[in-house]
Amino acid sequence: MKASNRLRFRFQWRAVILLAGIWVLLWGEASLLNILYGALLGWLVTVVFWLAPIRYYGRVHPGRLLVLIATQLKDLAVASVQLATVAFRPGLRLRPGVLRVELRTNNDLYQVGLAQLISIVPGTLVVEVVRRPRLLYLHVFDLPDDASVEAQRNHALALERRLVEAIGTESEIEAVRR
Questions:
Q1: Which of 111, 151, 154, 157 is nearest to 133 (CA)?
Q2: 75 FRET partner, CA 20 to 30 A, in 37, 39, 107, 156?
Q3: Residue 101 belongs to some domain of the structure
Q4: How far is it, in rounded angstroms, from Cα 163 to Cα 67?
Q5: What pLDDT score does 64 carry?
Q6: Global pTM value
Q7: What is residue 156's three-state secondary structure?
Q8: Does a structural domain hold residue 72?
Q9: What is the residue range of 8's domain?
Q10: 137 — phi, psi (to 5°)?
């Protein structure tokens, strides 16, 4: 049996417990039979809809995580005000565009996390993710000149650095700071 097949049928107890709990909540009854059905269905879901594991060797740095959260909240507020201003301005003069950001990290977890952090901010959206080489293509609602393109690219790279600083290993943090 190949290693990937062995991983597929491995019992993922955390996922099974979570899915069984959701099953019980949906049915609204915590009987033994309902819990067993939920656990069986949870195991089937983890086998049928199997995802390859993402290796994570870092640790959470609480202070840096707070910085990431604070800057993300600031970005949400600023982008919301900018979009509201544009929406109520007479005469719509936007130049939307797509830009490419080459990531400095080579980890699926950071790429997916960064794509999510970028996409929840109004006005930006990740339209494509390339695994090799690590690229994100971002749609930005207004890119009037080359300076704004470079500013958006630098903003995405700064967000990547903050993300790695918040949950990465020391070697990854040093690499992304260079």
A1: 111
A2: 107
A3: yes
A4: 9
A5: 96
A6: 0.75
A7: helix
A8: yes
A9: 3-48
A10: -110, 120
